[in-house]
Amino acid sequence: MEEKQKTFPPGFLWGGAVAANQAEGAWQADGKGDSVADHITAGTKTSPRRFTEQIRPEENYPSHEAIDFYHRYEEDIALFAEMGFKVFRISIAWTRIFPKGDEISPNRAGIAYYRKVFETCKKYGIEPLVTLSHYEMPYYLCEHYGGWTNRQTIAFFLRYCETVFREYQDLVHYWLTFNEMNTLVSRFGTLLAGGILPEDGEDLFGTKRLGSPETAAEKSRRFTALHHQFLAGAQAVKIAHEINPENKVGCMLSAAGVHPYTCSPEDVLEAQAQMERSNWLCGDVCVRGAYPYFAERFFRENGVQIRKETGDDEILKNGKVDFLSFSYYSSRCATADPKVIQTAGNMMLGVPNPYLEASEWGWIIDPKGLRYLLNELYGRYQIPLMVVENGLGAVDRVTEDRQIHDDYRIAYLSEHIRQMWEAVNDGVELLGYTPWGCIDLISASTGEMKKRYGFIYVDKDDEGKGTLERKKKDSFAWYRECIRTNGASVLSTNKKEDKL
């Protein structure tokens, strides 16, 4: 009997993903206010990005220009359409709609801009997948309200949500609430996810904080901010469904699989505990509508006190998401041995896996870990999943004939796609796949331009110099063929054939 050709399910949503603060630029155009990202400087692998209270002329703030998607969106979306995108994940900059965050009426120029972007997507048959808050909280809310530590922020966020749900109800039907909200479980998410401002000049990941024990008050502040986001997200789901019953709203996690570093029972338990804290705590609240059973002990032993109010549990129960989305770049190992050195990957600490290779930025490459994670997530939640970030950050070089040969990226993505297909055949309901930085953009973690993910090269360097010209990489044609064949072109090849 002839074997049936391997493909993904009909209607699978192939696409790509960007974020406003890393792509748009035009940081003060048409009434836009400052976001927290606009106060974060550039950095490198060895010199972290820093937060500054005031915008300093002598500093380089990558979000200010980014790749100028704001003025070039028509050109970029046309290139996405040429690849055959079915879906495009993009975020709305909250500060384009409400510049300070607490206004009563929205900025009409911002409303008009995103309408044009979404209309352009629709012109090409591309479904927008819109993240409501992607590391771009209004700076005014951080400075004057304490970010998400203040319960008032919920009302400001919901006013923003209701505004865009109504304005774009004819154009957008897939929404995500908060980008990688579980980064608030760790100290790395304090600024970007929580809008909790550090000291002036402190680096993005809080080296000063990480170098000293975190107090119970600091932990309580982070988890209170996370609780407020849970409440805001749940109420946003409810509002979205009321405005348009066709709306589908998902949560979004930074979901790395955690392996025990050794077969020691202590390491196995530590890996289990890290999966609980980093994945299941946020997933359970968003999908199941309640804090998980293990949360009480974790909060008690860490001195965490969350300022909950009467009715909060009911809000969470009535605001469950329709699907769960997540970013996946790497896995990590966990150990109970304090002598083992841990490193950071996508804002989570972990032990490098001795059986796997790492990217140039030290992120462990583990395609099979994606299959493992998909099965773990689907087994626990039994709702549709979507991989909305995945990719290889690498230095791309333009050859003398002005080509970009990124076979390493093709190989990375191919193996992850194969493992997604394996998970689908395991029985996982997977809606779609949007690789991160489908066009080169500013790195969130380092602020670099040379850490590139895209199928499309953007002529710009780490100092902000360049023409911003767009150029197709080898991976552009490879991904176009992958989409055209619904994955068959990738699934029919092996690792050695992962080049054009």
From TrEMBL:
Q: Name one GO biological process term.
A: carbohydrate catabolic process
A GO-annotated cellular component: cytosol
Q: Which UniProt keywords apply?
A: Glycosidase, Hydrolase
Q: Which domain of life is it from?
A: Bacteria
Q: What is its EC number?
A: 3.2.1.86
Which residues does UniProt call coiled coil?
A: none
- Which top EC class is named for this enzyme in its record? hydrolase
Q: Which InterPro entries match?
A: GH, GH_1_N_CS, Glyco_hydro_1
| Pfam family membership, one | Glyco_hydro_1
Q: Name one GO molecular function term.
A: 6-phospho-beta-glucosidase activity
Gene3D superfamilies (alphabetical): Glycosidases
The UniProt family comment states: Belongs to the glycosyl hydrolase 1 family.
Which NCBIfam families does the protein's record reference? PRK09852.1
Kindly provide the name given to this protein in its UniProt entry. 6-phospho-beta-glucosidase
Which organism does this record belong to? Simiaoa sunii
